């Protein structure tokens, strides 16, 4: 059965049937239900060309994928995609990944918008004054930012977690436990999430009359090896920290290995709190010493971004609302009170 | 500049120009170069509609993404995607992910083929007698299988690694080192890669008059936790293995943790070899005891699958050629000779 036949059977116009199936708000609920029931009963499934003709929509969400021999896609991406894909499936949306040179994504954004390849796009890993956000905003295609930029002179819709609040709470707990020298092993600090996390740690320290030493902040690609190297350097040089906040569970593997290699223990010598995106394949409670974490499911964020994109495509969501999710602080065995330091007060 | 103008300027037909830009073999090399040079000089970039009109092609590769609340996409996917995306970019191909109910992918394959949404598809994680392979073969769309099925009554194009050979070599090394009781912590043994790995281990044991005990084979989802649980069970029950082969680096993290929790050591009490897909964020040489591995870059496999898809789309590759890549066995500190067992010969 095609669209024409379905419309004829229902005594509705093809446009009305198509809009009903695509969740347009101008179709009333009773009609929408009648159309959806009939479509299901007769196995009608709109094809992209018909959908496009009737609604001007492609049924596709776009994502510009930075690529290059030296670009490693983070495993976080896969969890985000699980959530996004699950929602997209239930709303019959496909996702188009357009690979782009990591240093020139603008050309690709322009192409997919000019060619009307997708109905909406999302942007991830935003930076301050992010040019991609400014570009898609200017191009006028519906979009959602996963995360936040800063310093743009317009508002835009985003879904982010409270990175600053999470790392503020983590640092505050460590300070309350008596720690005075904290270190932060962070991700790429050209990205807003990392800037916010550092801001949170600094704010907690300043509130207690303390400071984050320059040598006590590292910004690295979030691999196990970089977690290891940063920790070795922090603990082997003068003035070692007694507590570490760390931006990923994968880097935390390296932190744990470095502490062990130095003959030290967690939390006896070093307390550790790491950020947990809730990977099914690596759980903080299963670390040799169960890991305290700031926890937020990146899979749920993927589903939420898909939900908002679908709402913007169908006109149910408009405007530039940003939403910020709170982050749980989960305390497990990897934190303890600071040891009294011999000869110091 | 649009296609019409470019064709007019070159005094060629629009079809010829479009085919030249899409690498069709019927356009001779001199013409192709002339067209490509002119397109570059004038900033011409074919849009999908024009491309489709002139060539019948969409410039899209398709992948049906199994989704569902209980479906975890493996982090391997991200590395595969890095390679695939990098090649696709250089050949101006986009990738369409069509999320599908993991238990009903057939409907989605039929839809994307019927609607001509993509020029070719790839299939991953194949199983014996895989219905998806049979379906896309019947539907007549160009495709490549990443991995292999078994027991289908037709040939099909695939790119796979020699999983059986890799695990045969790993087991053979362990046997040569004096190990008699081997265990295999495997992935989902409904999938061909896991079946092949088990076959390799069994073949090596049989060649030395040994066998793989039923209790010494585990088939689990490849998470850290499952690696831990499998190892605890293996080592705590009677007749514990002295060597373990393990299907992923993530599970190997759990193996190492379990061995440590039991007060045992690698390789003193247990030798360990794991399969390494070459993740940039977790390296076997950085395990507390450097890990011996069977190594094959899944990123290169992604690039190769993209390359073959592009060749099939443009008609440069035809037929049902399967290719099998050899796998390196990399020996590091996690293997050692079996200890003489007191009271046994």
Automatic annotation (TrEMBL), chains A, B:
Keyword line: DNA-binding, Repressor, Transcription, Transcription regulation
Domain HTH lacI-type: 1-55
Top-level taxon of the source organism: Bacteria
Lineage start: Bacteria, Pseudomonadati, Pseudomonadota, Alphaproteobacteria, Hyphomicrobiales
Name by which UniProt lists this protein: Substrate-binding domain-containing protein
Entry-linked Gene3D superfamilies: 3.40.50.2300, lambda repressor-like DNA-binding domains (1.10.260.40)
Ranges that cross the membrane: none
């Amino acid at each position: 059965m095609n669209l024409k036949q379905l419309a004829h059977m229902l005594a509705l116009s093809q446009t009305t049937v198509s809009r009903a199936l695509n969740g347009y708000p101008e179709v009333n609920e009773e009609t929408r239900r009648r159309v959806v029931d009939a479509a299901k009963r007769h196995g009608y499934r709109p094809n992209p060309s018909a959908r496009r003709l009737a609604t001007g929509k492609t049924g596709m969400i776009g994502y510009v994928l930075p690529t290059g021999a030296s670009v490693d896609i983070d495993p976080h991406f896969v969890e985000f995609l699980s959530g996004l894909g699950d929602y997209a499936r239930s709303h019959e949306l496909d996702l188009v990944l357009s690979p782009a040179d990591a240093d020139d994504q603008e050309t690709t954004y322009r192409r997919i918008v000019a060619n009307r390849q997708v109905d909406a796009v999302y942007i991830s890993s935003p930076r301050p004054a992010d040019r991609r956000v400014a570009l898609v905003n200017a191009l006028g295609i519906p979009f959602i930012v996963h995360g936040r930029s800063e310093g743009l002179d317009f508002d835009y819709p985003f879904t982010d977690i409270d990175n600053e609040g999470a790392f503020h709470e983590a640092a505050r707990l460590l300070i309350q436990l008596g720690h005075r020298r904290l270190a932060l092993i962070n991700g790429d600090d050209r990205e807003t999430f990392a800037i916010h996390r550092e801001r949170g740690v600094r704010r907690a320290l300043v509130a207690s009359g303390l400071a984050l030493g320059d040598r006590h902040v590292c910004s690295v690609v979030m691999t196990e090896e970089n977690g290891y190297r940063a920790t070795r350097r922090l603990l082997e040089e003068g003035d070692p920290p007694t507590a570490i906040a760390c931006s990923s569970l994968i880097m935390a593997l390296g932190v744990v290995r470095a502490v062990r290699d130095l003959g030290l223990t967690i939390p006896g010598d070093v307390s550790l709190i790491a950020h947990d995106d809730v990977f099914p394949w690596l759980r903080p409670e299963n670390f040799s010493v169960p890991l305290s974490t700031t926890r937020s499911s990146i899979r749920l964020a993927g589903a939420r971004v898909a939900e908002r994109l679908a709402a913007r495509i169908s006109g149910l969501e408009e405007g530039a609302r940003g939403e910020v999710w709170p982050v749980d602080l989960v305390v497990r065995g990897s934190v303890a009170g600071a040891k009294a330091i011999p000869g110091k007060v």
